[in-house]
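INFO  loader      accepted 1 record
INFO  loader      residues=116
INFO  predictor   begin
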Amino acid sequence: MISATGRCRIGFHPLPFFQHGDVGIVAKSGTLSYETVASLTRAGLGQSLVIGMGGDVLPGTDFVDALKVFEHHNETKAIILVGEIGGSAEEKAAEWIKEYRKRDPNTIFPDGTPLP
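INFO  predictor   done
INFO  writer      dumping tokens
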């Protein structure tokens, strides 16, 4: 799922949740992407670009690919990355962000507990 709020929508998601703004979202789950959108919209924060890439075993897009899109997306001022259990995509994204921080400072708030 890709949504540039008010401009383009590819995939399924409930349109009433979306509001134009400057927060980018990339999620491993389509459902978690629009749940995050709904929470932001209720808080009065709009979205610039939303990428719900899904948690398929053979993904076509990963977190790093999406973060590289946001790196050059001038309308995005903040990014929310939503992971889920399984795989190493989140760790790979963390490594990319670590290298990116050397060029452009940012704030990271990891949340959740790894399962044994």
